[in-house]
Amino acid sequence: MNLRQFIRQVLLESQDEWNYSSLTPKRPKPSNKDPWKESGIRFTAVAIQDPEEIKKLESGLQHALQEHGITIPSNWKRSHDYHMTIQLGAMQLRQRIADVGKQVKLEVHSLGVSNTNIALGVSGYMSKKPHQHITVAFELLPSESNEITNWMPLERSFTVTGVITEYRQ
Hints:
Layout: H1 3-13, H2 35-39, E1 41-47, H3 51-67, E2 77-78, E3 83-88, H4 93-99, E4 103-113, E5 117-123, E6 133-138, E7 150-168
Antiparallel strand pairs: 1-3, 1-7, 2-6, 4-5, 4-7, 5-6
């Protein structure tokens, strides 16, 4: 009898005394639950909330639109919640503790335009998105700004200050 057979025999003989199923690592069961709903946090973003910063952003937007000869269609909605999405859901705990509520400077450096959205390209804080941006106008959904591929540099970049904020359900 080899070692493997011996261990098997011992386990089988003592199965009434042992719960050997606990010897195997338990894998988490797949969940149909939405982790964002569980945390109550829909997404985390750098939010432009200060009235002076909003004025600076809107003034820079008007200048950028004029610079590139673009007019926002009259049937489009204007965003009044200026933010750069960092990620969907909550940040990792260590990062949440360090960053939520922290002021962040964003450099506005480009204007992005598509058939359904207009956004300002920004940099200055990490994001999982390939293009960090602030949606400023949209036809149907502001999230469609993630599909913008036409980014035009601004003649003069400018900075705005925002606060890392968790947007709840």
